[in-house]
Design goal:
alpha+beta, Maf protein, 31% helix
Length: 208
Protein backbone atom coordinates (compact mmCIF):
# COMPACT_ATOMS: atom_id res chain seq x y z
CA UNK A 1 0.00 0.00 0.00
CA UNK A 2 1.21 3.48 -0.85
CA UNK A 3 2.33 5.54 2.12
CA UNK A 4 1.42 9.18 2.65
CA UNK A 5 3.82 10.89 5.03
CA UNK A 6 2.58 14.12 6.55
CA UNK A 7 5.37 16.48 7.56
CA UNK A 8 4.27 17.13 11.12
CA UNK A 9 4.77 15.78 14.59
CA UNK A 10 1.56 17.38 15.86
CA UNK A 11 -0.78 14.59 16.91
CA UNK A 12 -3.81 16.91 16.93
CA UNK A 13 -3.16 17.60 13.24
CA UNK A 14 -2.60 13.92 12.52
CA UNK A 15 -5.96 13.02 14.01
CA UNK A 16 -7.70 15.52 11.71
CA UNK A 17 -5.64 14.40 8.73
CA UNK A 18 -6.43 10.71 9.19
CA UNK A 19 -10.15 11.39 9.61
CA UNK A 20 -10.42 13.48 6.45
CA UNK A 21 -8.09 11.47 4.20
CA UNK A 22 -9.41 8.08 5.33
CA UNK A 23 -10.96 7.43 1.91
CA UNK A 24 -7.62 7.32 0.11
CA UNK A 25 -6.01 3.91 -0.55
CA UNK A 26 -2.92 4.75 1.47
CA UNK A 27 -1.36 4.37 4.90
CA UNK A 28 -1.08 7.81 6.49
CA UNK A 29 1.93 8.34 8.76
CA UNK A 30 3.57 11.21 10.59
CA UNK A 31 7.28 11.78 9.99
CA UNK A 32 8.05 10.21 13.36
CA UNK A 33 5.93 7.15 12.61
CA UNK A 34 7.70 6.76 9.27
CA UNK A 35 11.13 7.17 10.88
CA UNK A 36 11.95 10.21 8.74
CA UNK A 37 13.94 13.12 10.15
CA UNK A 38 14.50 16.40 8.34
CA UNK A 39 15.32 19.89 9.56
CA UNK A 40 13.63 22.22 7.09
CA UNK A 41 14.10 26.00 7.08
CA UNK A 42 10.67 27.44 6.30
CA UNK A 43 11.80 30.80 4.93
CA UNK A 44 9.04 31.40 2.39
CA UNK A 45 7.04 34.61 2.33
CA UNK A 46 3.67 32.90 1.86
CA UNK A 47 1.88 29.86 3.26
CA UNK A 48 2.08 28.25 -0.18
CA UNK A 49 5.84 28.72 -0.42
CA UNK A 50 6.43 27.29 3.04
CA UNK A 51 4.25 24.23 2.40
CA UNK A 52 6.15 23.50 -0.83
CA UNK A 53 9.53 24.01 0.84
CA UNK A 54 8.59 21.60 3.62
CA UNK A 55 7.07 18.93 1.36
CA UNK A 56 10.01 18.93 -1.05
CA UNK A 57 12.58 19.04 1.75
CA UNK A 58 11.07 16.04 3.50
CA UNK A 59 10.75 14.16 0.20
CA UNK A 60 14.47 14.64 -0.44
CA UNK A 61 15.18 13.16 3.00
CA UNK A 62 13.20 9.95 2.42
CA UNK A 63 15.16 6.69 2.59
CA UNK A 64 15.12 4.39 -0.45
CA UNK A 65 12.43 2.14 0.98
CA UNK A 66 10.04 5.13 1.00
CA UNK A 67 10.89 6.36 -2.48
CA UNK A 68 7.32 5.77 -3.68
CA UNK A 69 5.72 7.63 -0.78
CA UNK A 70 3.75 10.85 -1.15
CA UNK A 71 4.82 13.65 1.18
CA UNK A 72 2.24 16.15 2.35
CA UNK A 73 3.09 19.33 4.22
CA UNK A 74 0.96 22.19 5.36
CA UNK A 75 1.62 25.71 6.46
CA UNK A 76 -1.21 27.38 8.26
CA UNK A 77 -1.76 30.39 10.40
CA UNK A 78 -3.89 33.27 11.53
CA UNK A 79 -4.17 36.59 9.70
CA UNK A 80 -5.64 39.52 11.64
CA UNK A 81 -6.60 42.47 9.46
CA UNK A 82 -6.26 45.12 12.19
CA UNK A 83 -2.68 43.91 12.79
CA UNK A 84 -1.70 44.11 9.10
CA UNK A 85 -2.07 40.35 8.66
CA UNK A 86 -0.07 39.34 11.73
CA UNK A 87 0.91 36.83 12.92
CA UNK A 88 0.59 35.34 9.39
CA UNK A 89 3.35 32.96 8.31
CA UNK A 90 4.95 33.48 11.72
CA UNK A 91 1.89 32.16 13.58
CA UNK A 92 3.69 29.12 15.02
CA UNK A 93 6.73 31.22 15.94
CA UNK A 94 4.87 34.27 17.23
CA UNK A 95 6.44 35.34 20.54
CA UNK A 96 8.74 32.30 20.23
CA UNK A 97 8.06 28.68 19.28
CA UNK A 98 8.04 27.53 22.91
CA UNK A 99 5.60 30.19 24.11
CA UNK A 100 2.25 28.71 25.11
CA UNK A 101 -0.78 29.59 23.00
CA UNK A 102 -2.54 30.84 26.10
CA UNK A 103 0.12 33.56 26.31
CA UNK A 104 0.02 34.20 22.56
CA UNK A 105 -3.76 34.47 22.57
CA UNK A 106 -3.71 36.85 25.52
CA UNK A 107 -1.18 39.08 23.74
CA UNK A 108 -3.23 39.25 20.54
CA UNK A 109 -6.34 40.15 22.52
CA UNK A 110 -4.32 42.85 24.31
CA UNK A 111 -3.08 44.28 21.01
CA UNK A 112 -6.67 44.52 19.78
CA UNK A 113 -7.87 46.38 22.86
CA UNK A 114 -10.21 49.16 21.78
CA UNK A 115 -10.65 47.77 18.26
CA UNK A 116 -14.41 47.59 17.53
CA UNK A 117 -15.98 44.27 16.66
CA UNK A 118 -16.51 45.16 13.00
CA UNK A 119 -12.76 45.68 12.58
CA UNK A 120 -11.64 42.52 14.37
CA UNK A 121 -11.88 40.50 11.14
CA UNK A 122 -9.46 37.63 10.70
CA UNK A 123 -9.01 34.37 8.89
CA UNK A 124 -7.29 31.06 9.31
CA UNK A 125 -5.30 30.08 6.20
CA UNK A 126 -4.03 26.64 5.26
CA UNK A 127 -1.89 25.73 2.28
CA UNK A 128 -1.08 22.06 1.68
CA UNK A 129 1.49 20.79 -0.80
CA UNK A 130 1.98 17.25 -2.04
CA UNK A 131 5.43 16.21 -3.25
CA UNK A 132 4.70 13.25 -5.51
CA UNK A 133 6.96 10.35 -6.52
CA UNK A 134 7.09 11.63 -10.12
CA UNK A 135 8.76 14.84 -8.93
CA UNK A 136 5.71 17.07 -9.35
CA UNK A 137 4.24 19.23 -6.60
CA UNK A 138 0.58 20.12 -6.14
CA UNK A 139 -0.60 22.87 -3.80
CA UNK A 140 -4.03 23.90 -2.52
CA UNK A 141 -5.09 26.81 -0.30
CA UNK A 142 -8.25 27.31 1.75
CA UNK A 143 -9.42 29.77 4.40
CA UNK A 144 -12.11 30.29 7.02
CA UNK A 145 -13.26 33.81 7.88
CA UNK A 146 -14.10 34.99 11.39
CA UNK A 147 -13.29 37.56 14.05
CA UNK A 148 -11.00 37.74 17.04
CA UNK A 149 -12.93 37.44 20.27
CA UNK A 150 -12.43 39.35 23.51
CA UNK A 151 -11.48 36.28 25.56
CA UNK A 152 -10.65 32.62 25.07
CA UNK A 153 -13.72 30.45 24.59
CA UNK A 154 -14.04 26.67 24.33
CA UNK A 155 -12.04 23.64 25.40
CA UNK A 156 -11.69 21.85 22.07
CA UNK A 157 -9.23 22.62 19.30
CA UNK A 158 -5.75 23.97 19.82
CA UNK A 159 -3.53 26.92 18.97
CA UNK A 160 -5.49 30.08 18.22
CA UNK A 161 -8.86 28.27 18.12
CA UNK A 162 -10.08 29.69 21.48
CA UNK A 163 -9.93 33.31 20.25
CA UNK A 164 -11.21 32.73 16.70
CA UNK A 165 -14.90 33.56 16.79
CA UNK A 166 -17.42 32.49 14.15
CA UNK A 167 -20.23 35.07 14.08
CA UNK A 168 -22.59 32.84 12.08
CA UNK A 169 -22.29 30.10 14.68
CA UNK A 170 -21.89 32.33 17.77
CA UNK A 171 -19.00 30.15 18.89
CA UNK A 172 -15.23 29.95 18.70
CA UNK A 173 -13.60 27.17 16.71
CA UNK A 174 -12.48 25.74 20.08
CA UNK A 175 -16.17 25.34 20.96
CA UNK A 176 -16.87 23.07 17.98
CA UNK A 177 -16.81 19.31 18.06
CA UNK A 178 -14.05 17.71 15.95
CA UNK A 179 -16.69 16.71 13.37
CA UNK A 180 -18.09 20.25 13.16
CA UNK A 181 -14.63 21.76 12.91
CA UNK A 182 -13.46 19.40 10.17
CA UNK A 183 -16.42 20.41 8.00
CA UNK A 184 -15.65 24.14 8.00
CA UNK A 185 -12.04 24.66 9.09
CA UNK A 186 -9.28 25.95 6.82
CA UNK A 187 -7.35 22.71 7.26
CA UNK A 188 -10.42 20.56 6.77
CA UNK A 189 -11.27 22.34 3.52
CA UNK A 190 -7.65 22.21 2.32
CA UNK A 191 -7.39 18.51 3.14
CA UNK A 192 -10.57 17.77 1.20
CA UNK A 193 -9.24 19.77 -1.75
CA UNK A 194 -5.98 17.81 -1.57
CA UNK A 195 -7.92 14.55 -1.26
CA UNK A 196 -9.50 15.34 -4.64
CA UNK A 197 -6.07 16.07 -6.12
CA UNK A 198 -4.65 12.80 -4.80
CA UNK A 199 -7.73 10.79 -5.79
CA UNK A 200 -6.98 11.77 -9.39
CA UNK A 201 -3.35 10.80 -8.92
CA UNK A 202 -4.29 7.36 -7.62
CA UNK A 203 -6.95 6.92 -10.31
CA UNK A 204 -4.41 7.69 -13.03
CA UNK A 205 -2.06 5.07 -11.62
CA UNK A 206 0.55 7.59 -10.57
CA UNK A 207 1.11 5.88 -7.24
CA UNK A 208 1.20 2.38 -8.59
Amino acid sequence: MTKIIFATGNMDKMREIREILSGLPAEILSMKEAGVAADICEDGMTFEENSRIKACGVREALPEDLADAIVLADDSGLEIDALNGEPGVYSARYMGENTSYRIKNAELIRRLEGVPVEKRTARFVCAISAALPDGSVRTVRETIEGKIGYAEMGENGFGYDPIFYLPDMSRSTASLSPEEKNKISHRGKALRAMEKELAGFFRDGGAA
